[in-house]
Amino acid sequence: xxxxxxxxxxxxxxxxxxxxxxxxxxxxxxxxxxxxxxxxxxxxxxxxxxxxxxxxxxxxxxxxxxxxxxxxxxxxxxxxxxxxxxxxxxxxxxxxxxxxxxxxxxxxxxxxxxxxxxxxxxxxxxxxxxxxxxxxxxxxxxxxxxxxxxxxxxxxxxxxxxxxxxxxxxxxxxxxxxxxxxxxxxxxxxxxxxxxxxxxxxxxxxxxxxxxxxxxxxxxxxxx
Length: 224
Description:
This protein is mainly alpha-helical.
């Protein structure tokens, strides 16, 4: 009797099924990557928000100083000094050392119209910020104030400091200072000849000679 054998057959997987499985796996990987990117993006956003909340913002505030603010302005000119501006008219200083109070707005007009007088040191602005705003900072390095000049007049400033202080001042200030001393020597209010000689050399103006010239002119007029 012949034994019968049963042969098992395996049904082949179609190419369509394989493609479907591959696409399913690819889709899953893409979904996982998209989820990871979304999560990382969220983490970065949250970190940026935390950093922003922890950072103290720097606020820069600019102080606007009004045009009406005032300062002391002192005449350093020998004799009368008049400043003119078309919108202001005249402001007059009757003598050396006279001090007036002017607003920044007034100063702008007078300095713009009398720029040379401001740069030469015919008058002195006490407020350093105004000096800077009026673009006079560099010029003021060669200008001394009334206190220094008065210290020379009173003898408080020693002769050995004349060169360092007076040597670099503007020519206009040298002339003004020399005229003050010429007047004082002429009136016999300042008679220290050693100091006069030193001042004459530093200023480049012979003070005693100028006094003699004035006396000569007056004497000639008296004999007419």
